[in-house]
Amino acid sequence: MKTEPLYPEPPAALVRPSVLHVVGYVGPGVIIASVTIGSGELVYASRSGAIFGYGLLWCFFYAGLFKAIQVYTAARFITLTGEHPIETWKQLPGPWCWFPLLIAVPAVALMPIAFSAIPEILGGFIHRLVGMEMSGPGIGPWGYLEFWINFWSSLLLLLCMAMALGSTYKVLERVSIVVLGGIVVCVGAAVVIVGPDLIQLLNGMLLPRRPVYPDWLLEAPQYAKEFQDRNPWLEVSIYLGAVGGGAYDYIGYIGMLREKKWGLAGRRVATREEIATAVADNTDSAQITLTRAKQWRRAPLFDTVASFAFVILVTLLFAILAKLVLNREMAVPANNDLLNEQETFLTALHPELRWVYRLGVFLAFIGTLYGAFEVYRHTFVESARAVVPKLITPQRLPAIRMGVVTYCLLGGLTMMWLPERVAGTIISRMTFGSIISGAASCGLWCFAMLWADRVRLPAPLRMSLPMQVLTIIAGLGMTILGVIVTVVYFRPS
Questions:
Q1: Structure confidence by residue, pLDDT tens digits, 178-230
Q2: d(CA 182, CA 362)
Q3: What is the distance between the alpha carbons of residues 477 and 414, in angstroms, rounded to a whole number?
Q4: Which DSSP string do the residues of 148-160 spell out, in sequence order?
Q5: DSSP, residue by residue, 227-290
Q6: Which fold has domain 12-490?
Q7: Which residues does 131 contact at the CB level (< 8 Å), separation at least 6?
Q8: Radius of gyration of the chain from Cα atoms?
Q9: Per the confidence metrics, is the pTM higher than 0.85?
Q10: Angle 354-387/111-129 helices, nearest 10 degrees?
Q11: What residue ranges do the domains of the chain occupy?
């Protein structure tokens, strides 16, 4: 009796791939890239270059590289097995479901932080853009500027929620690609025109070093309050989280692959025994199954490589230009003014390019929040499916979607309107989030993927030795950095 191959026939683009096919298979990775470009590149990469010059380029380069490895190992896993790795992690030795809970609970709990801090970054930009007064009498329990930033931020968050529920993102997405692409081209051109020192640039990108604040930063009255009592390693923590997102993003991203129907993702879950049997002998069916599996692995590889290459490139460009422009002028995106200084990146080329920058900022942050609603919905669904599988049924998915959007909205508004002395500043909230579900979680994820790969896949489909070594290096790098910043954060000052 003839046995059908386990995997569906891949499209021709995966059978005989070319460079153009890489672009064709960029999928959910683009959403991850768009979710981080607002706060990641525009704010934190620029902040790093303004403060440390080339000194912390290594942080962005290695974080992007390590996270690409982290994401690819999980994406190839769901492609080959049809099972989200968070489901497999339930079988890790130890108490029931300990690792999925370790990853998922902080991810869900921290969602309101993102939905308060990100709108507030743009809220401060809007307030300055419309020309309103920067100081005035307090309003209730809020300072004057704090109240108006919260007001603008609330309007923005409500707009993005309406878009997320109405699925009206297509036009915005197309316009964003054009405008943000224009910003990236302008920033790249500015970097070339200004001319970085390539030796110093490569040295800062490849050789990790301990972060140290420059003297002028601690002496400047406008920055002293924010930085004098802030350990430089906490800046590293927030930069690590800025590149490509965190574990809370990747749980959702891997779940989104079900919609792409790559390999077995979104089709069915195959047990280890099924997969092992399907590739076990020299029959035509077994050979076809093995060949198709290896071809399907290219889809998540193309998506990951293209998306993270873009993220790393754009992040480095903003950090480099901030070193060349802002660091020289001793100007830092800080306090609640995190977007205005970067306007000089484009006005250095032509004054009228400020309008391109301003439009790009709005599109980037609206895209970030819209994308976050989509990604976090998947994050919640995949987390709940692993811990309480009976909760997730096709009939309940619309209600769950509404529930997650409502949770993010109300949680964000609550954090936003709590007085700053209670909720903390934008930077302090984002730092806390990067500590709890940041580098250390990503590092542990890599080690969990090595275990899942061995217990769920037969030898012919497991990671190659070089891939295993890269995953170990990525896991060690992010875990060590995560432990360092966590110790610094919780250590009594």
A1: 656 777 788 888 888 888 999 999 999 999 999 999 999 999 999 999 999 99
A2: 14
A3: 35
A4: HHHHHHHHHHHHH
A5: HTTS-HHHHHHHHHHHSS--HHHHHHHHHHGGGGT-TTTTT----HHHHHHHTSSSSHHHHHHH
A6: Amino acid/polyamine transporter I (1.20.1740)
A7: none
A8: 23
A9: yes
A10: 170
A11: 12-490
